[in-house]
Amino acid sequence: MASAAQHASAIPEKNLFRIGEVSRLTGTKAFVLRYWETEFPTLEPVKSDSGHRMYRRQDIETVFEIKRLLYEEGFTIAGARRHLAEQSGTADALSESASAAQPPAREREHGLTRSQRKCLLDLREELLAVLTLLEGQ
User: Which residues of the chain have pLDDT under 50?
Assistant: First the structure.
């Protein structure tokens, strides 16, 4: 598991990044990043004059943290959102119920290997992104 310092050192020395750059840096598909923007209030890239998403260094660090929580720690999206809010001191801003997220230990009871779990989580993220796209039509 890579530390936050390792991720921070992997980010080039510039202030703004396009979604494709963030996708390559974090190993996360662009549509997943766009979906995470809808699910995590802490992930809010700015828009350029031409309407492109421009991620700040802080946004990229947030993507690394979201990815770690979801894929390595086994958090649900709601649980990861709550965890990030608690760390940033904005837990009161969330209106999620405490039962919305399952604890990571409970999710690991199903006897899946780490690679099987990652595959299922990737599939889940892709399906949620497709659902988001379909709901927007």
Answer: 1, 91-103, 105-109
Residues 6 or more apart in contact with residue 66 via CB below 8 angstroms: 36, 40, 43, 80, 84
Three-class DSSP category at 31: helix
What is the CATH number assigned to the segment(s) 4-135? 1.10.1660.10
Domain boundaries, the chain: 4-135
pTM assigned to the model: 0.61
Closest CA to 66 of 83, 51, 52: 83
